[in-house]
Amino acid sequence: MIEAERLTKAYDKRIAVDDLSLTVTGGEILGLVGPNGAGKTTTLRALAGIHPPTSGSLRIAGCDVVKDPIAAKAQLAMIPDDPSLFTNLTVWEHLEFTAQVYGVSDFAGRAEGLLEEFELLDRRDTLADELSRGMRQKVAVTCALLHEPKVLLLDEPMTGLDPRGIRTLFDAVRASAVGGAAVMISSHLLGQIDHLCTKFLILSEGKSLFVGSRAEIVKALPGLRSDASLEEIFFEATEGSASAS
């Protein structure tokens, strides 16, 4: 569902992503982790067709992101860390607009269900600029899920969410994966995504350090106990002796 082959993205003389290859199949949830400036957001935006790659190829559900961007974008949804909503549209109008963009007919029932799931029913007619930070994030999530995308890209999606909102988001992500979607989620909250993701990609300075399940990465990092947390894995991979090997 998600394929990147030798993705490189440079801004002037700075290389943000360096020769990165990855695949995420339907049903998998890939945790994208790394220090600030590691290239996580750039990778997600390139896959979403927002930033064209300097070199390499990208495919979403078999569609080339560069050569066939409309077909690729029709299969995905991206939730940024700070979603930009339309200030003069209500919550419901955002869902109506999203349904029109993606050609979702008879969307009302699904939209109502999403609003109930994310505790937004009583905000249905509220303008976006009257919502709290967390509620705006919830609106972005409901819009992203409305057309049941085959690929979900989430960039620090827990920002502003309360514990109930995070649990609801994770339940929705798991349900999407069970339904066959491929998911990539970037986060610095390692304890939160530790048991959500089925595998992880650890980036540093735009390069892939390790990719695989938690058990596979632990096996590649001598000295870590088998039940090491994602945080322990992260520090060993990026700052320990393994990162220099």
How would you describe this structure to a colleague?
- The protein has 245 residues and is an alpha/beta fold.
- It has one domain (2-82, 150-244): P-loop containing nucleotide triphosphate hydrolases (Rossmann fold).
- Helix content is 35%, strand content 24%.
- It has nine helices and ten strands.
- It has helices at 40-47, 69-74, 91-102, 108-117, 133-146, 163-178, 190-193, 214-219, 230-239, and strands at residues 2-11, 14-24, 29-33, 55-60, 63-64, 76-79, 151-155, 182-186, 199-204, 207-212.
- The strands form two sheets. It has a six-stranded mixed β-sheet with strand order 6-7-8-3-9-10, sandwiched between helices. Strands 2-1-4-5 form a four-stranded antiparallel β-sheet.
- Strand 9 and strand 10 (207-212) form a beta hairpin.
- Helix 3 packs parallel to helix 5 and helix 4 (108-117) packs antiparallel against helix 5.
- The longest helix is centred in the last third of the chain and has 16 residues, at 163-178.
- It is globular.
- It starts with a strand and ends in a 6-residue tail after the last helix.
